[in-house]
Structure prediction request, 196 residues.
Amino acid sequence: MTNIVRLDYRIIADIIQEGSRVLDLGCGSGELIEYLEKEKKAKVQGIEVDEKAIHDCIEKGLNVFHSDIDSGLPDFPDKAFDYIILNQSLQQIKKIDFVMEEAFRVAKNVIIGFPNFAHYKARYMLSIQGRSPVTKSLPYQWHDTPNVRFLSAADFKRFCKEKNFNILEAHFLGKNREIHFLPNLFAYDAIFVLSK
Prediction:
């Protein structure tokens, strides 16, 4: 891991209490859970579908399962974790309602981080240039993106209200700091902490 820690990782680490049980859905190569294990003495577990990323996790000594998040979490009992994290993976999930229900079944709190599709650069590219947005947090071209959903921070707030999810915290991220002014317009990414 480099010495420069990503802003979203630092914010998530500030949310999580020391020694917590954490499950990261779509953990990638395990950088976040490695950081939480080191900084928060968290008991971490990852789930990932990409075999190369799983290999990277194993090389780091991390506990990771090979599974598709859309298949649910049948191997985990109710409230087995203090937190479930879906950081930069929500937009790639096909069965959002099912995965959210599973997340609340196995954890007390759910932390969601995703790219904000309503960032002003994305709006400009789509409305003025007439092109699919490619930004810092949406780095893929339209033909090779793993994303299947393109939501905004405002969309996610509305979703939480419709589903009766309690928003405990909301953080909006710029390049190097949190955004407090018109976050749906100026934030590249959003992080929400939810309970049910």
In short: The first strand starts at residue 21 and ends at 25.
